[in-house]
Design a protein that fits this description.
2 copies of one chain form a homodimer. Chain A is globular. In chain A, strand 6, helix 7 and strand 7 form a beta-alpha-beta unit. In chain A, about 45% of the residues are buried. In chain A, about 40% of the residues lie in helices and about 20% in strands. Chain A has a single domain, classed as Rossmann fold (3-Layer(aba) Sandwich). By secondary structure, chain A is of the alpha/beta class. A 7-stranded parallel β-sheet of chain A has the order 3-2-4-1-5-6-7, sandwiched between helices. At the A-B interface, helix 1 and helix 5 of A face helix 1 and helix 5 of B.
């Protein structure tokens, strides 16, 4: 990168960090657990959020912010589950930024317990942008291959949890779950790891428990 | 984006375009068909290149440039097929740029018939960077879902071919091949479409024929 490019990027990230800190302060003060979902396109972020909505809705209030380059499809899928959802279409931009979340936040019911943010499908750029989340979760779908943590490290080093998705396809794939876990933990020893399938429900109880426990911890300290 | 950001981006893209034009002129004059492979992480770019190497090597000379954020793994896989390969590790950057290709080009045997470039696994950013290629191919793996062309349009509108990969998984997936084709063609009516599996070999003959025919057309005009 040229010197000018580095300076502009530092400006963008600096401003983003400041807005993200304000979002974190505001949401945590209200007891809202904010979760940022990162992954490649088609790793199953929306399908997982649909299942989370089904399981979490009877016991907690949630809202979803959907990030996409084009189309309103994802927000519509979440609204069909009876959960309020906002769609951000970035019109080409490859990641969400904190200011985009900041604009929507005043519209979100301040009494929600959980605010899930589905980032643009991109395993690279979103990792550099703090959205003010309390938890960052990277999804890795089993068809993508067990070598992805080492190849796209930043999404894994900056996350609190790695959610392996589409476990139902494992019988048809060369994906080595233990290798993926081992290499992800080498990058980030604190990573919580979940093996899930939105289709069969595998691993979803553990994941919901993790979100509920994370929120209890937040409200205990709030 | 701020005005300053827009100006810097225009500078980057302008410089990139100039270098890309030089690369195109140089390679096409030598009769080298340059192909830029774009896709999400784990769509099977390297697996497809391994199969292309097996089938093309007996009848043509080829070389591969691999783009990755970290690790040399992909170039090693290609070299294991007896094909010269260069690894670019971008160290965080989310796409290849023409200047990176320009640096390697003097090392590539000027007598090769095909130069394949595997971009960083990212369905968004690489679409904005011309690498001087003659053909751009976007890979869409069936597990990613048939809705991806409309959600990530630029990779599809700027490509010459869409290669659907992992067709062997179709019996286990809700992927609708006709819907994916239809939506991709709505975005780009000139798109050539191939349905392939590196595992079973499905569609690879048609793909190899396409590359060979594209090279014949290039050398006819050169």
């Amino acid at each position: 990168m040229s010197k000018k490019e580095v300076i502009v990027l530092q400006d963008i990230l600096g401003t983003n960090k400041k807005i993200a800190a304000e979002i974190r302060e505001k949401t945590e003060r209200r007891g809202i657990l904010t979760v940022n979902f990162l992954s490649s396109p088609g790793a199953g972020k929306t399908a997982l959020l649909e299942k989370i909505a089904e399981r979490l809705k009877p016991q907690a209030k949630m809202a979803v912010i959907e990030g996409d380059i084009e189309t309103e499809r994802d927000a519509e899928r979440i609204r069909a589950k009876g959960v309020p959802a906002w769609q951000i279409t970035t019109g080409g931009a490859c990641h969400l930024e904190a200011k985009m979340i900041g604009k929507i936040l005043p519209e979100v019911d301040p009494d929600v317990d959980f605010l899930f943010i589905e980032n643009v499908g991109n395993l690279v750029c979103p990792a550099s942008y703090d959205l003010g989340e309390r938890l960052r979760c990277v999804l890795l779908s089993t068809p993508e291959g067990d070598d992805k943590p080492k190849k796209y490290p930043k999404a894994f080093t900056t996350s609190d949890a790695m959610i392996l998705t589409k476990a139902d396809l494992l019988p048809h794939l060369p994906f080595d779950v233990e290798k993926a876990k081992k290499e992800a933990l080498e990058l980030n020893p604190k990573l919580k790891i979940f093996l899930t399938s939105a289709l069969t429900g595998r691993g979803l109880d553990e994941l919901i428990d993790f979100f509920l426990a994370s929120r209890r911890e937040l409200t205990r300290h709030a």
